[in-house]
TrEMBL record:
It comes from Aquisphaera giovannonii. InterPro entries: DUF1328. This is Uncharacterized protein. It holds the Pfam family DUF1328. Keywords: Cell membrane, Membrane, Transmembrane, Transmembrane helix. The chain crosses the membrane at residues 29-49. One of its GO terms (cellular component) is plasma membrane.
Length: 56
């Protein structure tokens, strides 16, 4: 998920440098959504963890 966010962020930067303002804004918005989803899933995984007893 974080890879997708970084990919859309890089696309937004490239589009911004080339002058595609609307397209860059769309890519940045998608990147923000992916970062938010990644952070939510990361926090959930930290809270719940694996939940199992470690094998010996």
């Amino acid at each position: 998920m974080l890879r997708w966010a970084l990919a859309f962020f890089i696309l937004a930067l490239v589009a911004g440098l080339l002058g595609f303002g609307g397209f860059a804004g769309d890519m940045a918005y998608i990147a923000k959504i992916f970062v938010f989803i990644f952070l939510v899933l990361f926090v959930i995984s930290l809270i719940f963890g694996r939940g199992g007893v470690p094998a010996v």
